Amino acid sequence: MTNLLKNLATTEVLGINRRNQDYLRPLNSPSAKKIADSKLLTKRILRRSNIQTPELFKVIRTEKQLKYVDWSSLPKSFVIKPNQGSRGRGILIVYGKKKGSEQAWIQSNNQIVRIKDFESHIMQIFEGRFSLGSRRDIALIEERLKTDKLLKKYSYKGVPDIRIIVYNSIPLMAMTRLPTKESNGKANLHAGAICVGIDIGSGITINGIHLKSKSLLSDTYEPIEMTYDQKINLPIKGIEIPNWDEILEIAVKCQRESGLGYAGVDIAIDRDKGPMVFELNARPGLGIQVTNNAGLRFRLERVAGIKVKNTKHAVRIAKNLFGGSVSEEIELLSGRQIANLVEKITLFEKGKYKVKRKRKKLKQGTLLVKGLLDTGLLTSRIDRDTAAKLGFIDAIKSFNSYEIPKVFNSFEEAQAYIDKMDNTISKHEDIVRLAKITEEGKIRVRPVISVNLLIKGIHKNIEVIISTRKELIYPILIGRRELKDFLIDASKTFTR
Amino acid sequence: MILPNLPHGIIVLLLFLPVIATIANFARYVLGIRTLGIYPALSLAFAFLLTGFRYGMIITTLVFAISSLSYSLIKYTRMHYVSKITVIYTANAIFLILAFTLFTQAPFFSNVLNLDFNEINPAGVLLIAVLIDFFVKQTVKKDWFTATRSFIETIIVSSIGFLIIRIPRFDLILVKYAWIIPLLIIVNVIIGQGSNLKLLEILRFKQIIVKPNPQDDKSS
After folding, report:
1. B216 and A298: CB-CB below 8 Å?
2. Is A15 in Cβ contact with B198 (below 8 Å)?
3. Check: CATH 3.30.470.20 for A1-54+145-334?
4. What range does the domain containing B42 cover?
5. Nearest residue of A to residue B215 by CA position?
6. Fold that domain A336-489 belongs to in CATH
7. CB atoms B200 and A217 under 8 Å
């Protein structure tokens, strides 16, 4: 309780009041809301920008049009939905025709539906039974999406959807909703679907939650590790959402095209056509914070004012700022840190190892460089000029003063030379030993020095071979010997 | 201070109106109690005023039970939405008449529970009956549980409103210090501009508030 009160003042959680006051009212104009609230308008706007939406078969606006619908002209499977429906209400999914019948179809709960049932359902749509504010509505008949093969294993009948919150053209948070038997194939948390947070950086699912109980005070959610009413239940953590980057880009485009300043974009992955937007939400819910175990307020404030150059830039910002939940979990389990292929490394000048860690600015006597974490090398290497800058110029001069053969014919020959000269050359205080290496395809002998550095917040004193290789892109290459504390993520090339 | 010839009753009722509305506003935006809306909360509070709390609660419970039951019976019947509402209104009228008959004729109710429905103002019953529309609409829009929750929240807010306006001499105090009413505008403006977490949201997001996300501590 004390913790709760203490954290309340600095909470990163976004509540309804703040969402409405600071984001929805000022940023979502009535015209943008009108687009988001109408599936038909959304389709038109998004198609102009070549964003895929489910194919529209028919629009039924009046009772008269309903009378003349040629049901036999529709494909075997389709979906009837209200144009302004919300929370998945009023959606009738038709899976196919009943065998041997032209006038009977099968719906999601295996019940038979006939034309009169369609007509009755559409009449209810007209009356606004499922629409926002119970307004009179129109009915849409569109294609039924087929669930992606990977996600099909985790969902019961319906298509799982992916909700992405986008603000200032930057995706902030994402989750997927997996339909269950309890939810009768609906991707709705309150109906019993499972909600799983997605790490923005990797598109891998993290925390799963499920509605535990509805109480008079507030709904309670419970963490869930696996699907619970599938034929084969599988863990829901660690699912890699297909086409993740494309999905994030689509979400950004949708926000821009719709004119919504703060938007929830619902995307489903069709087995054949890939990601498809089926809904934009002008008032996205806040439950996504629970599934991601993170507050939206912090993220909203973090990206406010950032100027986004293009869609790819937006995705990169989002990944860099908000990705990493999965990495943190791996780090926790393995006890190692995840490092990028290229990391920022602080090199310390000779004899200036100690730094005041609290000081943010690097003190004099350090050199900030980009280093490659090269698992192909055993011992780390440093560029000669960089070594000189660090104060090892004397060691280099001392090494060069010996008449060392430039090339050796074999490692044995190089080792024999080292055995003979190591004690002499290593007399210099900075040269630790000699090492034989292959450089530019030739076997050479080089001096090894000891360098202090800081990588991913870890101070290390490592042995590095001074290299004279001309095309060394990075001034330092960190070898396997020093990488025991890290897991290398090859997909990352830029440091945060 | 009321000038001569001004209808005292109407003035008092009009003064009660912003008080109850402010309670409903506070409940919604500060506590997170949504209710079925501000009108149902006002309507029920005034209904309690007209019928008395005891009778008001009995009628409200009856209306809730009849509406829930009749809606669940006709839920899957193929008919228009407005027709469904009309059926529920009709069912309420029939069953309330039956209930009043039972309450007045059965000696248990009149003698043991000391109920006398002749005491109550008929307008109060009507004010409660209008809740049917809001309750059923909520049931259709969301679900029965959510609608029931909102209904109970409405009763709570209305009851608080009712208890406040029933404070002895509260009406006289309001009339004497009528300048309080414009102050309520300021209170409501402040509530309306608030962007803090509601009390119930604190419970909802407790796990995130207590345990800040370490990922978000990063800054680039």
Report:
1. yes
2. yes
3. yes
4. 8-217
5. A325
6. Cathepsin D, subunit A; domain 1 (2.40.70)
7. yes
